């Protein structure tokens, strides 16, 4: 593999990373809607049942796409944890 080929692969990885950030920003917008809803309904932050369902679903989706489900689960777990922290900060700042 030449350095040019590696550079091309890295450019494609950079593109994927940019799209991932865009998706995380979109998820953040939806989480703000969830925060507003939970605030209005005086609901708690954590819904472990929903989280468990999401993790199972993401493993199935990963398997269908040829991705190791452990990777998908670990990434989604980190995303959930990060956005849960955001929810806690927003809902408890009142």
Give the helix/strand layout.
Blueprint: H1 3-41, H2 48-65, H3 69-92
Describe this structure in words.
This protein has 94 residues and is mainly alpha-helical. Helix content is 86%, strand content 0%. It is built from three helices and no strands. α1 crosses α3. 1% of the residues are buried. The model has no long low-confidence stretch (mean pLDDT 93).
Number of strands: 0
**Unreliable residue runs:** none
SSE run: HHH
The largest β sheet comes out as: none
Distance between the termini: 56 Å
Average pLDDT rating: 93
Q: Number of DSSP helices?
A: 3
What portion of the residues fall into strands of 2 or more residues? under 5%
Q: Nearest-angstrom radius of gyration?
A: 17 Å
Q: What does this entry show, briefly?
A:
This protein is 86% helix and 0% strand. It has helices at 3-41, 48-65, 69-92.
List keywords for this structure.
single chain; 94 residues; mainly alpha; 3 helices
């Amino acid at each position: 593999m030449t350095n040019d080929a590696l550079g091309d692969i890295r450019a494609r990885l950079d593109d994927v990373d940019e799209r991932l950030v865009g998706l995380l920003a979109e998820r953040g917008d939806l989480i703000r809607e969830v925060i507003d809803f939970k605030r209005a309904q005086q609901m708690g932050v954590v819904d472990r049942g929903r989280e468990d369902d999401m993790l199972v679903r993401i493993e199935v989706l990963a398997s269908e796409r040829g991705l190791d489900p452990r990777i998908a689960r670990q990434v989604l777990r980190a995303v959930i944890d990060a956005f849960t922290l955001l929810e806690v900060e927003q809902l408890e700042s009142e």
